[in-house]
Design brief:
Blueprint lengths: L6 H17 L4 H5 L6 H16 L18 H11 L9 H15 L2 H13 L4 E4 L15 E4 L4 E8 L10 E7 L7 E7 L5 E5 L10 E11 L3 E2 L5 H12 L5 H18 L6 H29 L7 H23 L13 H10 L9 H12 L5
Helix pairs in contact: 1-4, 5-6, 5-7, 8-9, 8-10, 8-11, 9-10, 10-12
């Protein structure tokens, strides 16, 4: 069996690298300091994603009828492997091309597709994900935010969401709300984030300033035409979306390149020959390559239009394991990453450590993924 990249895939990667070399801002390291959700990086992300779009690289993996290139999921993973170790110069656009757009193709009405997909194809819109609540993190069905349909064809929504990335720079929100009494009687709403009735409060956390927000809905009015799918039937759409989200960030590649940088720094310090250091590096790299292969299996299944299953959760678990292995290694052998200062002038190593702190929680907590695999894939009882 051939595990290497095809000629076309290798050429695609070189095209991506060429665009990065030509269009990544010279002051990218300075722009990146503000964080993924800063106004500066959001603006830079729009511009850079626009260049990718002009080159036919941003949504190459989408069908042509929606503005893509009829490519396979491999192009999406290759693109992510080149973007994320650099600190993701697409900014919020990565979420659009990873799962917002595919969910629209899967569940939106023709009118919604015509309205929402073209700006994503151009790299010119910021979405945020309004899923989690204080009592409903990875257990989304426990949410309390509710929507009530009034006689004038408008939903009135009340509640709150938290852990929301990009909220204060987003034009649109992908909002989940209860529309009935049953636990999974959930509907999806596409909400303009400048609507009256929305209050956004940023708060500090493990990641950079401006990345995390609480979002409150106080009698927010949303027209029924902005509901995605049928009322109360959002759960299947959400599961479809989560299958994309859980492998949307190529964390294994961030870890791999960060470890290459860590090895170079340890060699510079004359510490690489320590057998304990080499043993622990090997453990991290083994976990990283396991995560890569499991994630590639998910990509292969998508390329063959296989039925959705829980392998995305397995991939999410292996990603969390290589993340934790890397962070433990860096904290032990290169504690410089605990500060905000670059390690020997290299900001990417510090960023990889700090970005990954919350990555065992984001996109589905590790423990929840274990439960999903145990119950749904292995048939174990709760």
């Amino acid at each position: 069996m051939e595990f290497g990249w095809s000629k076309d895939q290798a050429q695609y990667r070189e095209r991506v690298r060429s665009v990065i070399a030509r269009h990544l801002p010279e002051d990218w390291a300075e722009i990146h300091k503000g964080g993924l959700a800063s106004p500066e990086q959001t603006a830079a992300g729009r511009k850079f994603a626009g260049k990718l779009a002009e080159e036919g690289l941003l949504v190459q993996h989408w069908p042509k009828e929606y503005g893509g290139g009829d490519g396979l999921p491999w192009e999406h993973f290759i693109l992510g492997e080149e973007m994320w170790p650099l600190g993701e110069p697409r900014g919020a656009q990565y979420m659009n091309v990873n799962w917002i757009g595919p969910v629209m193709m899967h569940a939106a009405s023709p009118e919604q597709k015509a309205r929402f997909l073209p700006p994503i194809v151009r790299g010119d819109v910021v979405w945020c994900q309004l899923f989690s609540e204080p009592s409903a993190g990875s257990d989304l069905a426990a949410m309390r935010t509710h929507a009530e349909l009034k006689g004038n064809g408008t939903y009135v929504i009340n509640g709150m969401k938290m852990w929301t990335s990009y909220a204060r720079v987003a034009e649109w929100g992908f909002l989940l709300a209860k529309t009935g009494q049953a636990k999974k009687e959930i509907s999806i709403f596409l909400v303009p984030m400048n609507s009256p009735g929305i209050t956004i409060r940023p708060f500090n956390g493990l990641v950079e300033d401006g990345h995390l927000h609480e979002v409150y809905f106080d009698n927010l009015e949303v027209p029924a035409e902005n509901r995605l799918g049928e009322e109360g039937q959002g759960w299947d759409i959400i599961r479809y979306a989560l299958g994309y989200e859980r492998v949307g960030v190529q964390r294994y590649e961030i870890v791999r390149r960060a470890m290459d940088q860590a090895v170079a720094e340890l060699k510079r310090q004359g510490r690489f020959d320590d057998p304990l250091v080499q043993r622990d590096i090997g453990m991290v790299l083994a976990a990283t390559e396991a995560s890569r292969l499991v994630t590639y299996d998910v990509a292969d299944q998508r390329s063959r239009s296989a039925s959705p299953n829980e392998d995305a959760s397995v991939a999410r678990m292996t990603a969390a394991e290589c993340i934790m292995a890397m962070n433990n290694f860096l904290a032990t052998y290169l504690p410089e990453v605990l500060s905000n200062e670059p390690v020997n002038g290299d900001w990417q190593l510090t960023w990889a450590y700090q970005f990954m702190i919350a990555s065992a929680i984001a996109a589905g907590a590790y423990e929840i993924q274990c439960d999903i695999v145990a119950t749904r894939q292995l048939g174990m009882t709760r």
